[in-house]
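Late entry, evening session. Most of the bench is empty. Finally got around to the prediction I had been postponing all week. Sequence below, unchanged from the version circulated by S.P.
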Amino acid sequence: MSEKEPQLREPSKEWPHYELWMRTRNLLKELPTYFKSTLNITSAVNVTEIYAFGTALSYTIEEEVVNTLNKEKELLDPDGKYCEYSFTRQAQSFPDVLFLNSEKGDIIMGIELKSWYLLAKEGEPSFRYKVTPSACALQDLLVVVPWALSNVVTGNPIVFEPFVISARYAAEYRNYWWKHLRKAEGNTDISSPDGVSSYPSSRERIDDEPAYDPGRNFGRLARTEIMDKWVKRCKKEKLLGIEIEKWIEFFKTGKIRHKEICEKRLKSS
């Protein structure tokens, strides 16, 4: 019997924290409206170093996303039911961020948070997401935040609409795609660790492992096509009036049409 394609599932509306979960998901999608960064890059980044620069700043961006969620907590909790809870990052554990009461150790939901520097030469998010589905609670989210500097090579980090999806569904679909959709030669089996449950400790083995992966591409979620429409929308976003995809081309080739740049400068002057 062939394996069925996984279906997206959400927490039950009867779950006591459903409204909080919905508000959190909606706030994440509206992140560009609320995100504020104290970081300001005043010296232009050398073009040859711009890709490494994005990688170095990604952790800072993720920290500021968590700070934004906590600052806007009133939007998530208008009735004050969760005063003792906050979004907290945890080192080297899955998921990256927990909404929890740290004194009681009570966890309501988790967020696996990734950032994507929009000018990265790959042209798509390059992170690997290998966690086994059973490590994801139904309410956990995978969130990918695209960002760039306001003046391309200087200025404040600005973010664009994130990719927000069920963490469990993303893991299930990744495995389904690996086994059935990518049309690759070789053994497509995947081994999963035993006894894994949600909110594992940092010492637990929680990653799925492919039987055959010479290119080390397992977990490259952007390769599964699940993010394609969102990636295309991101590339159409504009910095200084020019589409992201054209900035990427410029940093690769040094070519943006001279006429287009002149027109944009005249409009802004």
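Two things to note before I forget:
The mean pLDDT is 90.
Residues 18-236 form one domain.
Will write this up properly tomorrow.
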